[in-house]
Design brief:
Layout: H1 3-6, H2 18-29, H3 34-41, H4 45-54, H5 66-77, H6 82-89, H7 93-102, H8 113-120
Helix pairs in contact: 3-4, 5-6, 6-7
Length: 121
């Protein structure tokens, strides 16, 4: 096995006690995101989603509320990356991208470390 392959080994699926799932449901219904719950329970976001669905929880489809999108616009236009903005709101970079483009924000082109280094040189 190559060195990089070790970081790709999947964790065994975590088993949750009923009380833990109850807590997940309560926190989700209080407004926590799937991503926040995954961090809290140290598992993958899909595991959280699966547990919530198994309890019949209605999943929120909107990644960001209108006031959050406006704040995300401000942060992004101030120079933050999509990933950094997503971290502020507990959502994925792609969620931020979708919400910002839907709000008419012109996204910057992606740059790499090499691109930034060549401009600084």
């Amino acid at each position: 096995m190559a060195e990089n392959d070790a970081s790709r080994v999947a964790k065994p699926m975590r088993t949750f006690r009923p009380a833990e799932i109850d807590k997940m449901v309560a926190l989700y219904e209080q407004g926590k995101t799937i991503y926040q719950l995954a961090d809290l329970f140290d598992c993958h976001r899909q595991t959280i989603s699966r547990q919530l669905k198994s309890r019949g929880v209605h999943m929120r489809l909107t990644g960001m509320q209108p006031d959050q999108i406006e704040e995300a616009r401000r942060l992004y236009e101030s120079g933050m990356t999509l990933k950094s903005v997503g971290a502020v709101f507990g959502v994925a970079r792609d969620t931020v991208r979708t919400c910002l483009t839907g709000a008419g924000v012109q996204l910057r082109s992606r740059t790499t470390k090499a691109d930034r280094a060549s401009r600084a040189g």
